[in-house]
Every structure is written in C-alpha cells, then in structure tokens.
Amino acid sequence: MNANRRQFLIKSGAGIAGLLAAEVTSASLALASGKPGADANFPGLVPLPAHIRITRGKPFIVRPAMALDDSAARKVGGPAGAGLADYARRQLAARAGVHLDVVAPKTPADIVLRLAHKPICAGADWQVAQAYHLDTAPDGRRVDITAGTLHGLFYGVVTLLNLVQKVGEHWQIPAVEITDWPRFQWRGYMLDVSRHFFGSHEVMQIIDIMALLKLNIFHWHLTDHQGWRLSCKKYPRLTSVGAWRSDVGFGFPHAASTHYNARGQYGGFYTHQDVRDVLAYAAQRHITIVPEIESPGHCAAAVAAYPWLSCSGKPITVPAGAYRPGLNKIIMCAGSPRVYQFMETVIGEVADMFPGPYIHTGGDEVDYASWQTCRRCAALMRKRRLTTMPQLQQYYEARIARLVAAAGKKMICWDFAPPGSLLMAWHGGAPQLAADAAQAKQQVIRCPQGHLYFDWLPTQTSTQKVYQFDPTEPGFTPQTRPFLLGAQANLWTEWVPNLDVVWQRTFPRLCAAAEVFWTPQDDRHWANFTGRLKGFKLAPPRRPRTGSTRKALGSASPPIPPKKS
User: Does the pTM exceed 0.85?
Assistant: First the structure.
C-alpha cells in the first residue's frame, strides 16, 4: 500500500477496517491468479482449511436465537469443556447478535459438537489432536462439528465463526463440508512489551485475534533494555525500578501512550494475578504462552535495578530510547556466581507462573566488551580453559539451559542455542542456520526478519511478501523437516507506542502468516487469500485514549535497523 495512504488512514482514525480494505485492494490488483470461485464462496475463512468443498444442500441460516449441544466438549474436556460453549456464545453474540443456549444431550440443536471415534486425519499425533470435521446438514438446519479432542472442537467452532457472513438480510453459513488440520505444530506471534508496555487487557485482545486465526503460541517478550515487565518476589526492584523510565521515549510525544505512573514515569509490569488472568484467557483459546527473560544481553533494565548483575557494577538508569552507542555492551557478568543465583531464582519463579513447556532466554546480540576487561570473567575462563568470548557465552548458555531444565522446562534461544534447546532463527543467515540445526536434529522455529518482522513497515514487508514465505524453504529435506516445529511472526515495539499501532503493524500481515502456518503449501494462492480476507471480521483495538493520542500515531517511524530487536 502507498505509504501516504497508510499515514492518512492512521491520522484520520480510519482504524483497522480501513487499513484492511486499503491493503487488500492494492494487493488484489497486484496478482490475479488463484482458485476460481473461492472468493465468493468463503469470505472471512482465514486460514484456508486443508480440505473444503461446497455441498448441494441449503445454506445454514443463523437465527437470532439458536441452540448448542456441547455435550461432547464437556465429555472430552471436563470442566474446561464448558468454556467452549461460553466462547461460542460470546463470539456469536458479538458477530451476529445471536443468543445461543446450551441444551441437554440428544435435544434438537442448531449446532452439535460430536466426538470422533476414529482419527480425523492421518498425520502426526499433534495434527490428529487439532483436527476437526465440519459439515452443514442438507436441509440447512444444523451444523455438526466433530473432533477427537477439545482442541479440535475449538478449531471447528472457530471455523464456524469465520464462515458466518451476512448475505442480504440474513446471517448465514454456506452449505459446506470441511476436514481440517494444521500444517505446522508451532504457529506463533511475539509481542515485545519492554520497549513499549501493553496492559493485560490489551494483551487479551491480541490473544482473541490469534485464536480466530488458529495461532497457538503467544511469545511474551517480557524483558529487555528498556523495561522489565514481570513481578519477581525475591527481586522487587526489577519492577519498582526496572519497569519504569523517564518518558515514553523513541521520539514519541507523551500523548502516544497512557501507561504512566503517579510520578509521571512511563512503563508498567504484570503482577502474578495479571499473569494468571492472561494464562486462563489464553488456555480457553488453546494458546500456549512462552515467556521470554533476556540474558546475558538486552538486560539494561535489570542492571538498573541491580547493578551488581553487570561486570562493572556501576549504577545506570533504564534507557528511554532506541539504540545508542554502548547500549548492547550492558550485559550480565558471566564470571559472577550471583548472576547465576539471580537467574536460577528468576527462572524458578517464571517456571512456577507459566505452565507451558518452554522458557525463552534470549541469548543473542551480546557485545563482549565488558567480559573482555572483567577479572571475574577472566578467572572463569582460566578455570574452565576457555580461550574465546564465544566459548564463554557457550559456557554461560549451557549453565542457563541446565537451570531451565532443572525447573522442568525446555529452553529456547535466538540463533545461539546450546544442544538440547530450541533454536529460534531470525537473522539474514537464518535459512542455512535453521537447516543446519535441523540436520543436527535440533528443533527449529523460523521467524526470518525479511518476512515475519512486523515492526518493519508494510512498505518494506508487504502482506504479499509475508504470504509468499514457505518455512520449509530453502534447505529443509524430508529427513530434516520433522525438526522444523513451525514459524512465528514478531512485533518489536520500538516504534509501536500503543495498541492502535500494534493493529496497524500486525494486520492484515498476521492473517497472511496464519495461513502460511496452517494451510498446505500447494493450496495457498494469493488472489484466493485476498478475496477471503475481505470478509474476515477484525474488531478495532480498545484502549484508554487522550484527546491528542491519535495525532501522535505513526509520528516516529524511522527506517528499521538490520537487528533482531
């Protein structure tokens, strides 16, 4: 989309609907190929299912009052199964004004959830667990959703929601039969809440859209140079000091955000209750949350709170802006026993808070300058017979990996992953790095900056460029593809001061990424996708506003540097 057109939409308050329409319109003109007829038949259906066909039956008319038989969800999911009916009720009410009642088993119902007695698809266990079948009755009076798990039933309900479209005076679902399962196990989105903070209710809005796109991993980048966002019982200064800085920073005016404390400092953090609330919200939508605690680099906020974490021990303040000379030289001391004690405690608390199997520990963009002049680091290198700085970092990462394993979790790192941990590959050489790691039987998640960094402007990375990405290319073979867990879109927030800009940077590009992650490669066609995207229902963000906030949007968008974060 023309950059001037996007800035006009931002400043005029057109919101996400205007941005979607403008980008899809320009994208549709760029390419005119795809599956004929799909645009008209399935508007709003993103991502495209693995198998879908139009049947000869009547369309299902969505009435103002309908009944749901959710007994299968309750049977397979226990107490959590009841939450699926609540989710469907809220979503249908918001989309089409439907009042949905839950009825007793074997009572006539408009929507019936059913348990599958055999696998829906022939795939890996995780694909079978997420698979579902949806079909409308020939007379158009019922929709059946069948799956073997609560997870599969949830995705069937999500597809039903995305199929609901207004045709003339009525909301309806086309006469259709769908059998569906995901292409990749890891379908992620990362939000950086350090550079700019987003409250728990803002995070939940993002999780809502992720669920509608069948994304299943929310990567929560909780700490970095510009802010520490997670409460830690043993180290309270991480949030009393590390969560706050002098101003919103990055060249934005004060009105660009509402996240200020009584002293006028910018920032914020999540209490343990905040985390529990977000976790419960995500779990109902079958989204796993992966917390990230950066180490040994990207840690200025932690060093501001506890200067002894660094080699010099000198006091610093939390940085309020982007990159400046020497910022990445602020790193934790690899030779200090107190650093490992600190990390053990923090990792233990994080592991207790987050039930998912992973903890991301960062690990990249470490400037070794302070290690090179540190007596404690030198002593450790002599003791361990290490001769180079990369070897010292390898030692450090191996110790952190053991701490993560002792806490019952598996470690993820950016590009610098010790054996046994997951590699998240992002930078320019990532295709070969990722392929080599898979060749060594290391699990890999791909998030190349050229395709999946949404802090890059749409003029740099368009929705079409996102859609063209294939995580298996280049370099993956049939033997190494099982080690490719999937892919992830990342939003670094240096130039994203509030939720409006999150929406503008994320959508519709995340819709394209979701289809890359879910739909079989051979079934993806750009013109077909843009036709369906026009009907995708995306609510605008909700956040507190000041009178001048809108004027501040998009006011600081310098060229994105060739860095991870």
Answer: yes
Secondary structure letter of residue 544 according to DSSP: -
Which token pair is 350?
């994080």
Instruction: Flag whether pLDDT at 10 surpasses 70.
Output: no
Rounded CA-CA distance 217/283 in Å is 11
| Helices and strands, number each (H, E), in the chain | 22, 22
> What b/e sequence results for 300-335 when a residue is b if at least 16 CB atoms lie within 10 Å of its CB, and e otherwise?
bbbbbbbeebbbeeeeeebbbbbeeeebbbbbbbbb
Q: SS in 3 state form for 482-525?
A: HHEEEEEEEECCCCCCCHHHHHHHHCCHHHHHHHHHHCCHHHCC
CA dihedral defined by 29, 30, 34, 38, rounded to 10 degrees? -40
Each residue's pLDDT tens digit, 200-256: 999 999 999 999 999 999 999 999 999 999 999 999 999 999 999 999 999 999 999
As a residue count, the chain comes to 565
Rounded to whole angstroms, the Cα distance separating 272 from 264 reads 24
CA 239 to chain CA centroid, Å, is 24
What is the three-state SS of 111-161?
A: EEEEECCCCCCCCCHHHHHHCEEEEECCCCCCEEEEECCHHHHHHHHHHHH
Of 563, 514, 550, the closest CA to residue 253 belongs to 550
Q: Is 97 left (phi over 0), alpha (psi -120 to 50) or beta?
A: left
Mapped onto helix, strand or coil, the DSSP state of residue 531 is: helix
What confidence tens digit (pLDDT) does each residue in 195-214 have?
999 999 999 999 999 999 99
Sign of CA dihedral 221, 225, 226, 231: positive
Q: CB–CB of 350/359 below 8 Å?
A: yes
Cβ-contact 28, 105 below 8 angstroms: no
DSSP letter string, 450-487: HHHBTTS-TTTS-HHHHHH--TTTTT--TTTGGGEEEE
**Residue 145 · residue 111 · CB < 8 Å:** yes
pLDDT value at 562 more than 60: no
Asked if residues 255 and 549 have their Cβ atoms less than 8 Å apart, the reply is yes
Phi, psi of 293 (to 5 degrees): -120, 105
**DSSP state letter for 255:** G
Q: How far apart are CA 504 and CA 176, in angstroms?
A: 33
Alpha-carbon gap, residue 554 to 132, rounded angstroms? 41
The torsion region of residue 475 among left (phi > 0), alpha (psi -120 to 50) and beta comes to: left
The angle, 0 to 180 degrees and rounded to 10, between the axes of the packed helices 272-284 and 337-353 is: 50
CA angle at 189 for the pair 188 and 194, rounded to the nearest 5°: 135
Q: What is the CA radius of gyration of the chain?
A: 24
The enclosing H or E element of 370 equals helix 369-372
Q: Which two tokens stand for residue 12?
A: 């005029």
Instruction: Enter the tokens of residue 550.
Output: 């809108």
